[in-house]
Please model this.
Amino acid sequence: MKKIFLSLIFLAILTTGASAQVKMLSLPQLQKRISNPDTVYVVNFWATWCKPCIEELPYFEKLQATYKSQPLKVLLISMDFESKLPAVKTFARTHKLASEVYLAQRKSDQELIDAINKDWSGALPGTLIVNGKKGIRKFQEQEFTYDELNKLYQTNK
Amino acid sequence: MKKLVLLMLIAVSSMAFKLADGGYKVGDTAADFKLKNVNGKTVSLADYKAAKGYIVVFTCNHCPYAKAYESRIMDLDKKYSAKGYPVIAISPNDPVAEPADSFEKMQELASKKGYTFPYLIDETQDITRAYGAKATPHVYVLQKTAAGNVVKYIGAIDDDTENTKADKVKYVEGAVNALLSGKQPQVTATKAIGCSIKWKKSA
Model:
């Protein structure tokens, strides 16, 4: 009995620790996901092979954790090949990513890049901030420090 | 008079900045350069007297997507160099920011893989800035004309970085084939996911 109880606790810790769920997300699904005007969305485009992306991921996690009581939603959209879903899942689990993680499902890179922002060259990382209520939709093709990211949120929330 | 000269100077320099900032668009004339090749010699576009144009590829050692395209870049040179469109590869990255892209590592890679084309380092990053390359790999197809080297195509090598599609659209080949047959490329600009350029930290 004790054993079952312990393993139940263990299981609970495992499943609540990090969401580590990675789903495929198409462009229309993404547009819908970021359409609530009362929420500020910070959408980071990254990849498991992209070093500067991996370096800044903790800042996005920290932003979400710091402002968890505010209407802020951080989304991490992997631009890895669609065939790399298992690798992205493993990455999300081993890095204990708590934010929502998706793998971009796309007909072509170009269609997605242009739909996110015409000025985006396609270089990773890139970050989109959306505040529907204020009519803000900005894209930054750059790496962020936490302070820069926090500033981006503060000036657009 | 002095004032006028000063004003003109300001206007000219701000124009130069503007150009450098946005990089080239299709139809612009691309600057030639003098960059150090992995063999220690400097290379300029003008060195290629018989060339009809150039396939300028901003690429590098470290980027997984540049690696994914490496053999396709090598194939482009094998296929088009003899036809008058040699590949000129330029590594745009600051080796301090990305040690895997040091000149020595570039030399190692070029000799290991047997590159048949120059692999140049843009130490000042001025050419990268002038062209407006934002990612690796990033291709500029230039056509040599009496007026200079005109940009005819900017973007990806094809629409299949992963290299799994049999029916991939080979953008660069399409552009060069068109130019070789005296036509204009149908697709002149494309985008693909790539690695950001590793810029020198500004002082």
Observations:
- The beta strands of chain B are 29-30, 35-37, 42-43, 53-58, 87-91, 119-121, 135-136, 138-145, 148-155, 194-196.
- Residues 25-196 of chain B form a domain with the Glutaredoxin fold (CATH 3.40.30.10).
- Chain B has a mean pLDDT of 92.
